[in-house]
Amino acid sequence: MARTAKITNANVAPRKNTAGLVGNTPVRAQDFNDLAGDYISSSDANAQSVASALTVTGAATLNGGSLTSGVDSADLVVKQYDATEVARIHDGGTTQSDTDMTAVAPGFGFKLPVMAVTADAGDKTVTLTAAESGSIIQCDADTNNIIFNLPVIDSAAKAGLTYTFVATTAVNGSKSIKVNIAGADGNDKFLMIGITASDTNLLDLAGDTLTIPSNAAIGTTVRITCLTSGASNAAEIWLAEVLGTEATVTNA
C-alpha cells in the first residue's frame, strides 16, 4: 500500500520551495521526492490519481500499462508549450463544433509538421534527420536546385522514417529537386509507385538518387518511407509514392 505520511511544519521548514507544491503546502526541494513516494506508489496495485495540474520537468516513463482519459465523452488533447494543439485522441462520443457532423468511432488525430526550403538565392542542400520524420517539406525550386540528403539508415529500427516533398512552385526548366540516399554506394533502391493523370506504375528501381525533374508542375508530390536497412544495414529500400510529374531514380 502507498504510505500516507502527512506534511507538517517540521518537514517544510526552514526553507520553502514555492515551485514544489503538494496539497497547496510549500515543500523543500530536497523533500519532494520523498513526499512523492509517500503519496504516489509504483508498487501499490490500487489506482492512484493526482487531482490537480501536474507538471513534469524532464523525461517521464510509463512502465507498461496504458494512458487513459479519466473523463468519458471528451477528447484527450496534446498541446505543445504555447498551447497549440498537435494531436487529439478522439473519444467517439463527443458533439462536434458543426452539428451536421457526428462522431462515429474513436481514433487518433494529429497535425503534421510542415517545413520549407526556398532556393531563390542559390542552390540549397539540406541534410535530413530522424527528427524531421513525418514532415511535409515545401520545395521552392523555381530558380535554383534543391538537394536533400536522407539520414543514414544504420539499423533495422530506423525503418519507418518518412518525408513528403511538395513542389510549391513549378521547377525551373534547367533545375531539379533531388533526394539522395545516404552513402550513394549503388546498393540501395526505391520501390516507386507513380500516379499520374494517365496511369499508375509500380517500379522497382535500383539507385541512390530520386529526382523531381526540371519543369515539374506545381503540386508535384513525392512521399518516401524507409522500408528496411537491408543486408548488413547497407542495402536500403525506400518506398516512393509519386503524385504528378514522373520522377526518376539513378545512381549518384
Structure characterization notes:
The chain has three domains: 1-65, no CATH class; 66-111, no CATH class; 114-250, no CATH class. Helices cover 4% and strands 33% of the residues. The protein contains one helix and 17 strands. Strand 15 (221-228) and strand 16 (237-243) form a beta hairpin. The longest helix is centred in the first third of the chain and has 11 residues, at 29-39.
Short description:
The protein has one helix and 17 strands. It is 4% helix and 33% strand. It has one helix spanning 29-39, and strands spanning 21-22, 25-26, 76-79, 85-90, 107-110, 114-118, 124-127, 136-140, 146-149, 162-167, 177-180, 189-195, 200-206, 209-212, 221-228, 237-243, 248-250.
Sum up the structure in keywords.
single chain; 252 residues; mainly beta; 3 domains; seven-stranded mixed sheet; five-stranded mixed sheet; 17 strands; 33% strand; globular; disordered N terminus
- Strand fraction equals 25-35%
State mean pLDDT (0 to 100 scale).
Answer: 81
What is the count of β-strands? 17
Radius of gyration: 26 Å
Quaternary structure annotation: single chain
Determine the N-to-C terminus distance. Answer: 64 Å
